[in-house]
């Protein structure tokens, strides 16, 4: 249950955000509804997210795995739900998306992807538990620019997931719409895996 009303003041600014969100995502995102109680926070968040969307040194699949691992570590069901939907729509394999919370037990990931998942978890721990060997492997494989972007993406997802979790925002059913398109066999497999 959300800890703040998801029925914010209907300002002109929020109505524009609402229109854009419905057009882009099919519904108004709950984080936007929550942040709309403080228009400057919402405006700052939107501008920040526009800037983050332009970062392009890190492979999109690695970026997605880092975001999902961070959200899973924090336990943000809203972020996991939206991330699954977004990355599924982009073409990431269902197994990689579904297995993120238990990635150590999955054979879906390459050694580099495993390092990215481990790095996201280590960075998200309080205090962070990143070790020199892991960071060194990632820098060598990715290069400095992509390593910096990976680090920044994990930090950004920490901001998103911690804020959404603290506000009590939970799944909006985005993943369910993916499962409906996949058909009954996929839905049954996803349900049995706990995804």
Outline the structure in words.
The chain has 195 residues and is mainly alpha-helical. 33% of the residues are buried. The chain is built from eleven helices and no strands. The protein folds into two domains: 9-54; 60-166, Up-down Bundle (AhpD-like), CATH 1.20.1290.10. Residues 180-195 have low confidence and may be disordered.
Helix content: 55-70%
Largest sheet: none
Mean pLDDT: 92
Query: Over all CA atoms, what is the radius of gyration?
Result: 17 Å
CATH architecture of the largest domain: Up-down Bundle
Secondary-structure element order, N to C = HHHHHHHHHHH
The geometry reads as globular
CATH third-tier fold name of the largest domain: AhpD-like
What is the β-strand count? 0
Summarize the structure.
The chain is an all-alpha fold. It has helices spanning 12-25, 30-35, 39-52, 60-74, 77-90, 94-99, 111-124, 132-142, 144-166, 174-182, 184-193. 70% of the residues lie in helices and 0% in strands.
């Amino acid at each position: 249950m959300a800890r703040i009303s998801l029925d914010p003041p209907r300002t002109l600014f929020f109505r524009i955000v609402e229109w854009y969100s419905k057009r882009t995502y099919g519904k108004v995102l709950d984080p936007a509804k929550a942040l709309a109680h403080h228009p400057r926070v919402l405006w700052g968040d939107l501008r920040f997210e526009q800037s983050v969307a332009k970062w392009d040194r890190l492979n999109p699949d690695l970026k997605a795995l880092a975001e999902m691992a961070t959200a899973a570590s924090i336990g943000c069901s809203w972020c996991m739900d939206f991330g699954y939907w977004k990355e599924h729509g982009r073409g990431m394999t269902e197994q990689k998306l579904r297995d993120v919370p238990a990635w150590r037990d999955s054979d879906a990931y390459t050694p580099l992807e495993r390092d990215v998942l481990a790095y996201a978890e280590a960075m998200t721990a309080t205090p962070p538990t990143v070790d020199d060997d892991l960071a060194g492997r990632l820098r060598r494989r990715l290069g400095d620019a992509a390593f910096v972007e990976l680090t920044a993406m994990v930090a950004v997802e920490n901001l998103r997931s911690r804020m959404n979790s603290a506000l009590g925002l939970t799944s909006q059913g985005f993943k369910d719409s993916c499962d409906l398109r996949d058909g009954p066999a996929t839905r049954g497999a996803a349900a049995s895996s706990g995804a």
